[in-house]
Amino acid sequence: MNLIISERGTFLALRSERLQLRHPQQDTQEVALRDLESVTVTTTACTLSAEAIRACATFGVQIDLVDGLGAPYAKFSSPYLVGTVSTRRAQMQAYLTPAGIEVARHAIRARLRNQASLLKYFGKYRKEADPAAYQGITRALPGLTALETELDAQQGACIDEVRDQLLGIEGRGGVVYWGAVAGMLPPDLAFPGRLGRGATDPVNMALNYGYGILYARVAGVLATAGLEPFAGFLHTDRPGKPSLVLDFVEGFRAACVDRPILALLGRGWRPEVEGHGKLTPETRKRLATAVHDRLESRDTWNGKRFRLQNIMVMQARRLAVFLRGEGEYPVYVASW
Description:
The chain is α/β, with parallel strands linked by helices. 50% of the residues lie in helices and 14% in strands. It has ten helices and ten strands. A hairpin with a 2-residue loop joins strand 3 (18-23) and strand 4 (26-32). It is globular and about 60 Å long. The two termini are 24 Å apart.
């Protein structure tokens, strides 16, 4: 279970082994710590007691603080849950070997396959209802597949030798994918194409907010697996840039964020923007709920049904195993 705190004036307290949400204009709510996996705070006007933070750390419940654009800016978690160093040492060494290239290649392969899976998912419902959008999807799918062949051809001694080529493949895949998505979206949204930081249109603002929530969750998953979230392979290092988070999240963007947000937009829901250019609190809460609900949903992986949240945990552990040279790192592809 994931707890979202979005109301201004909320006070998070501890009562026995339960978190208590108090608000002067609402009924008090209580949630058992044993049922929680994370707490996401989307407002700056709330108070967290030290007792509540300590209890969350003890129970392994991560507390993520995200701003009005969805970008995570702080996290509370126990440092003792990630005390291993062997995985981090292997991670740093892999940067200078072909293993680092394989991790970067994995990120793009997972992205391409999950983008294709999502287009197939939405295409099922558009063959008759929206033939033009369906044709756009069918044209996009071979392009995504072809890029995988090009991806396999990139070879080198370390990631620095092939990063530009890999990023070029990723970028071309994005053009193909978002072009097909644009054809699915209702015309009134006036989607200009995929834009990241600084976007002012409601679709990109909603996607960016959803990605921010996913980044916060992935950072905790990677740290728990013993990995260093700021030491990536495909994405370059920069102070304050969680490069490995950006690498790892590529395989989960489409399944965990694009799918629920595109579904909301397709059903007629529209993001609302405040006068100062930020999403309204109600919109942020709706998006956070949609992403968290999606992470709680189940998918088939290795012949069994797991929550998407747990699949991310398993993939992070497999990445750690691969970097230590102890096993494979298979690509997860969401069902469609």
